[in-house]
Amino acid sequence: MRRPFIAGNWKLHKTRSESVALVEILKAGLTDIADRDIVVAPVFTSLTSVAAVLSDSNLSLAAQNCYPETQGAFTGEVSPALLKDAGCRYVIVGHSERRQLFGETDPFINRKIKAVVDAGLSAIFCIGETLEEREGDKTLEVLKRQVVAGLEGLTPDTMSRIVLAYEPVWAIGTGKTASDDQAQQAHNFIRLLVADLFDHSVAQQLRIVYGGSVKPDNVDGLLQQPDIDGALVGGASLKAEDFIRIVRFQAG
């Protein structure tokens, strides 16, 4: 059985004090949860403040981005080593907003994943198709390209530091969600692809989570699917009550 993984991506929201207030509520409301991994990803400026609150809790910290160098003349960037020093355990890599708004390519995302792993952190590696690609029947083609390029050069051992997040771009922040069957089909395709790239054991151990307008009223159905191991939550993770309910999903 793969251990469920629920992460909240706060994107560009919340000051340090607002971030601390939210995680204090989450910490108190989820203290009894021991059978799933719970992660929050605040903005860079809140990481150390949130880390201090979570230090004695069952919640882990993620960064929303990184730059694939340890140090150097890279003004405005943050390395995986610095994120680890700030208290992070995970880094979100390849989110569709980074791909679309900031022009991040598959090879660049691959560099980031390797840098995250080399720093002793784990990568939440995001993939997903746009609405145009889905309507053009290119979903599986896009997913294959992103997975193959993103995981290039990784070994079966380093795959233990990867959580793969399938996020159909057309469902992010739109209120639309892939149906349970659509999501399961994509997750199953990804798992079979990973088995081809590595082996069956790696594929069976890999956690593949769904992202794209995950809410309290759809999480139970999504996580009942055999190949969906959790969720990467956007807007609903900014509301303590909603995120607590999502973490407490009931899947059969």
Q: Top keywords for this entry?
A:
8 strands; globular
DSSP strand tally: 8
Strand order of the largest sheet: 1-2-3-4-5-6-7-8
Q: What share of residues is helical?
A: 40-55%
Largest sheet: 8 strands, parallel, barrel
Evaluate the radius of gyration.
17 Å
Word description of this protein:
This protein is α/β, with parallel strands linked by helices and 252 residues long. The protein has one domain (5-247): TIM Barrel (Alpha-Beta Barrel). It has eleven helices and eight strands.
Could you provide a short overview of the structure?
This protein has 252 residues and is of the alpha/beta class. It has helices at residues 16-29, 47-54, 80-85, 96-102, 106-118, 131-135, 139-150, 180-197, 200-205, 219-222, 240-247, and strands at residues 5-9, 37-41, 59-63, 90-93, 122-127, 162-166, 207-211, 230-233.
Secondary structure layout plus pairing:
Layout: E1 5-9, H1 16-29, E2 37-41, H2 47-54, E3 59-63, H3 80-85, E4 90-93, H4 96-102, H5 106-118, E5 122-127, H6 131-135, H7 139-150, E6 162-166, H8 180-197, H9 200-205, E7 207-211, H10 219-222, E8 230-233, H11 240-247
Parallel strand pairs: 1-2, 1-8, 2-3, 3-4, 4-5, 5-6, 6-7, 7-8
